[in-house]
Amino acid sequence: MQRGVQGEYLTISTVGETARAFLPAPLPPTPGIAWSATLRDKFDRALIALGRLDSVSVLLPDATLFLYTYVRKEAVLSSMIEGTQSSLSDLLLLELEQEPGVPLADAREVSNYVAAMEHGLERLQEGFPLCLRLFREVHGILLSHGRGSTQTPGEFRRSQNWIGGTRPGNAAFVPPPPDHIQTCMGQLELFLHDTPEATPVLEKAALAHVQFETIHPFLDGNGRLGRLLITLLLCEQKVLSAPMLYLSLYFKTHRARYYELLNGVRTTGDWESWLDFFADAIIHTATQAVDTAQQLLFLAKTDQTRIASLGRAAPSALHVHRTLMERPIVTSGWLTQKTAMTATTVNKSLKHLEQLNIVKELTAHRRNRLFCYAGYLDILNQGTELPA
Questions:
Q1: CA atoms of 107 and 100, how far apart (whole Å)
Q2: Hey, what domains does the chain have and what are their CATH numbers?
Q3: Helix (H, G, I), strand (E, B) or coil at 382
Q4: Per-residue pLDDT tens digits for 91-111
Q5: pTM of model > 0.85
Q6: Which of 272, 314, 328, 375 is the most buried (most CB within 10 A)?
Q7: Would you list the DSSP string of 205-244?
Q8: Could you give the C-alpha distances from 178 to 18, 121, 185, in angstroms and in order?
Q9: Which of 313, 338, 315 is CA-nearest to residue 327?
Q10: In whole numbers, what is the pLDDT of the chain averaged over residues?
């Protein structure tokens, strides 16, 4: 539906020139969403896909093993959209206090995302509402170290920003002026809390994401926080019991279409095309996540069967293998501490796993050697490959 411009343009003067900043109308859209049978069916299928994804814990003997690395995969993908060059392996190396294969700032930026997501989820589990205070808290952690640390972490911007171009005058998009941020974000908070009217959660997530990206309330980190908002909302509303939906991969793959649709909402009011895209993203991503979980489960069971053939060495090797399912890149020293087994037993187990081609050594050090559960990491790395 073509509703026309979803807000108003304000002429502003900034950095020595005039520009037109966009002030979005509050949600929900007026008139309301035109739910065609096709769009309604697609949203129904998206909810079914999310239900299957949420039940993935039934497939996995210990979902926490899978979740540790899964959250980090989303962090890598979301940060990649913003231009970082860190891979999943780089992040795991950084957490082991090892030197990553990319600039340290990139790896730290991804690590900040993990910490921000975990903080947001912990606050929600404590009963804290999804509100402006939580946005600022999560943003403060997201930009706590590295390149964004000078961009007022945890505070709404007090100066004008813009997207694309070298200055506001030639920018692709200019968000609201800073003196309108508190009002815009206050209206978004009311919408999240079902004011002026209740909105189904998946529709709410889709609309709120566009509104947040349009307001662009912070000097930096808006893209990452806007994508994280989707996950936090779905977890708060109990659609997902764990953050297992990584929409960043879909947005990254369909980047041009994603930005085209965001702009289409602002300039023509075509919310339906965005909702159609968003539902596709949910269906594709949730289905792929379930497939990934099944691949990991099949690999784990296959490898456990092979390890069981080791005889007396099997119990220790299985213990190491289970730990590698949580962190597929480790040092021998970390494994010793994590498993509470002796260094000798850990090293013997690693040797057995190497002989079975389950584990690969990444270094040739005599101490603190690095080992990788290669097959497991290969499955998790799908979609996070860095460009050549």
A1: 7
A2: 7-291 (1.10.3290.10), 311-380 (1.10.10.10)
A3: coil
A4: 778 777 776 665 677 778 888
A5: yes
A6: 328
A7: HHHHHHHHHHH--SSS-HHHHHHHHHHHHHHHTTS-SS--
A8: 15, 28, 11
A9: 338
A10: 89
